[in-house]
Design goal:
With about 350 residues, the chain is of the alpha/beta class. It is built from 14 helices and 9 strands. α4 runs antiparallel to α14 and α5 runs parallel beside α6. The structure holds zinc ion.
């Protein structure tokens, strides 16, 4: 595989689960998307690791559960000469210049703060820079795109965020934790966009017009992200990229079957979503959010973090300039992170 010329920032992976399962990601590991050799081969300069808290975690255990995952991320970031824990855009730039691999911590699912702004603050002290507000289920203060039933906040007029949810967004603005709207309902997306003083992100979501998953972003959302200086990271899950795969996957009750296996999902679909998002929202709004090690199926040839040079070649074959590729691969997120201090 030829080496790519652009460094990559990947806004989302679930590889902390590999670490928690005791896998040694410092060397080539079996059955994973992300390990140090793959990150190096793919030219990754910054990998965001999400401390993901499942929706069925008991509320009084969610904070300590997220902290255990943050411990694992932190230990990994200090376990290899190529790796470096990264908190700011300046650190990310330095790591990229030194040809090292930065590791940034995120929390996925606001359940982890156990309805406490002090706990949110504790995450910031642990260098967390991104929090995905919700996951598959509604929280008492924020609605999920896939939550069952209707979101009925006890204290609010809104269908997206409760009054406490608004305070969470205010606190994130003050602390410097970027709200991540992947998984959020449409109403929560608009509520957060209105509330946040700084640009927001959807770290791992694709374009709804190309693939009608509830996890994807509609055109007006993409446009609003672009207009407000935020960004969306393209997810590599086949069921968010390919409409045919999505229909088969959902018909198979969200599992992989012979039926889903028969659907061809070429990696050019990733470039199709990037194209579409650039056209709707502008080249300053698009980034990468692989969701590696959290997705049950990826397009053919998407082997893991080592695959980015193939994506770069595909974008070049579509006439993308070096400048545009550089923005999508790393520049856009560095710009947003800088705005968050
Ligand atoms: Zn996710």
């Amino acid at each position: 595989m030829s080496k790519g010329s652009h460094k990559v920032i990947d806004l989302h992976c679930d590889s902390v689960d590999s670490l928690m399962a005791g896998k040694d990601l410092r060397k080539a590991a079996a059955g994973v998307h992300v390990d140090v050799p793959r990150l190096a081969a793919g030219g990754v300069g910054l990998q965001v690791f999400a401390a993901y808290v499942p929706a069925d975690t008991k509320e009084n255990e969610a904070f300590s559960y997220a902290n255990k995952k943050l411990d694992a991320i932190d230990a990994f970031a200090r376990s290899h000469e190529l790796l470096f824990p990264v908190e700011s855009a300046a650190e990310a730039r330095a790591v990229i210049t030194e040809k090292k691999i930065g590791i940034m911590a995120a929390v996925e699912n606001g359940l982890a703060i156990e309805n406490s702004l002090e706990k949110l603050q504790a995450f910031r002290r642990r260098k967390v820079r991104i929090m995905t507000l919700v996951h598959f289920q509604h929280l008492p203060w924020a609605a999920s795109s896939t939550g069952s039933g209707t979101f009925t906040p006890p204290d609010s007029h809104s269908k997206g965020l409760s009054v406490f949810g608004e305070r969470v967004i205010d606190a994130m603005n003050d602390l410097g934790i970027i709200p991540d709207l992947s998984h959020a309902s449409d109403a929560a997306f608009w509520d957060v966009l209105r509330r946040s003083k700084k640009p927001i992100i959807a770290s791992h979501s694709c374009a709804y017009s190309l693939c009608a998953s509830k996890r994807n972003l509609k055109d007006d959302q993409l446009k609003a992200l672009g207009d407000s200086g935020g960004l969306a990271g393209v997810n590599f899950f086949s069921a968010f990229l390919s409409e045919t795969f999505r229909l088969s996957y959902e018909k198979s009750n969200y599992s992989l079957t012979n039926d889903t296996a028969s659907v061809q999902v070429p990696l050019t679909l990733i470039a199709d979503h990037i194209d579409y998002m650039v056209n709707i929202a502008g080249e300053d709004c698009v980034a990468l959010g692989s969701d590696f090690d959290g997705i049950p199926a990826a397009p053919e040839g998407v082997t893991g973090s080592d695959f980015y040079p193939v994506l770069e070649a595909e974008l070049k074959s579509r006439g993308y300039t070096e400048k545009r590729i550089e923005k999508i691969f790393s520049g856009n997120f560095l710009r947003v992170l800088e705005e968050w201090g």
